[in-house]
Protein 1
Amino acid sequence: MTDDQEADGRRLPRAVLWDMDGTLLDTEPLWTIAMEQFAEKLGIEMTPELRTATMGNSSVDALTKVYDAARVPDSGRDFDGDEAWMVQQVLALFADDLRWRPGAVDALELVAAADIPMVLVTNTIREVTDTMLDVLGRDRFVATVCGDEVAAGKPEPHIYRRAAELVGVPIGECLAFEDSPVGAAATFAAGVPSIVIPSAVPVRARPTFTFRETLEGLTLDDLAAACRVGTRSGAAARDVQKYEA
């Protein structure tokens, strides 16, 4: 953060933590196709309710919910094999149709121009994330944290706490961007203020959330305002380990 940013009365975040799927990249429709293919592979239909339940989940959590819906016994749950199958499906889909969310590029450039370090924080596994970074631009981020690199993915707080550790900033002085109920829950549980741009599923309001319809038109004043909201509510949020989204 520069002296000029402090001098004009704005207190900007010391780091910005970006979710990827549905926030920066319009991948949710492609994940939906892959999840439908997986459900069909297990002999069931991917209902809207099941898709909503899996949205934004880590791969293990998403697979578990589909296994449960298909009544697959524990002995028949091949997490490693089915995850590898899913990876191949989504990479093929992403190769053909990977798009930015509205305003995402300008938002990244806004934060970069303010010299605020950015971390990519995603439930997506490392193998898939590394492919997406070719689109996002690796050099934009000082670090990346994936769902398969922490004890438990979103909605647990571990992934955001790890991101703050990697950038060396107290988590309450960061600002996160999220789109899903699962991701937003993780920010609240971790005690990081967040700007939430719901992409496909409504997100329950929480004291540390600032809602926007899109990243288009984002300004530094918007970042500062979201930080003020988080500061006022942060003490209560940091006492919460998790909540049911």
Protein 2
Amino acid sequence: MERKEDRRIERTKETLRTTFKQLVLQQGYSKVKVKDIVEVANYNRTTFYVHYDGKEELAKEIIQLEMQRFLFEFCKPVRDNPVLDLRVMKPDGTDVFHYIKENRSYYDLLVIDDAVPGMQTALLDELKDIFHNRMYFLGEKASEINAPYFIHYRAYGIYGFILEWIRAGYDASPSEMARRIINLLHYQSSLMTQI
């Protein structure tokens, strides 16, 4: 019985999360109220408050869940290859841009004027963390390439690529975006490994 209830709770929370994202995209974060969320989701306020203290907690959960998923997708290539050679990596070897496009209900929120507080910095911070704690460049200049200022350079560069791609309506294919990122990373070193 507990499993059925757990699935029902998760289904309710997913409906609230989806509704919240839709409303923020339409109206902007500051205009969305709990009453709007429950009305569109066809729940009552009591149901909402069983799961969340307010829209801020809902937003925080959405960001945390998405950053976990982004991390999983972004790090797939180095998980599958103990030493990843960017010179031979094919753009189809990474799914992160397919993932972003498929989950545009979240990523479109990054470029709206009245964005969810913390959503933009969460992605940038996740990219910094990836290059600080999960991926390491190999080679004779490894200590310099893996230094904090290079980590920030890479994180901001990839973050900028993603934002501009979203702003342009995902005009380049996910494979083309992957090719561009591989080239950006390859200029620093061709070999990477997972920490």
Protein 3
Amino acid sequence: MYRKILITTDGSAVSKHTACAGVNFAKQMGADVLVLYVAPEYQYPVYVEIIPPSYPSEEEYLAQMRRVGQEHLGSVLRAAQDAGLRCEGLTAFADAAALKIVEVAEQRQCDLIFMGSHGRSGWGQLLLGSVTNKVLSHTSKPVLVHRLITEPGT
């Protein structure tokens, strides 16, 4: 049914558990996996006239965020490989994470977007996460929203 599933992660504990559930779902479907971490774009300081020496350059920032992305993607990619799935990880840069998720799903021809109901910025169990809600409203692709009943570690 699904040949390629986009699994998102923001690096939070909840997101990692959701991503692993996505890997299990992909295994059941026999689908390939693309794991995506969206990092914020580089921001120049407000006081652009004088950039403090300790402020990272754009190149330093991008390199650091790629390392962070690899850390966040690593456990999910290992789980996919252990499950015998073809998988790929991608760190993308955007200030609007939801729109980047939709864009990557289109560009990489994913059949399904698998994401958590809440991530790093979730409001407990009260509201659907803002990124998830925006993805749902901006894509015509199917989105499987995974909801953890209990927080990881409880």
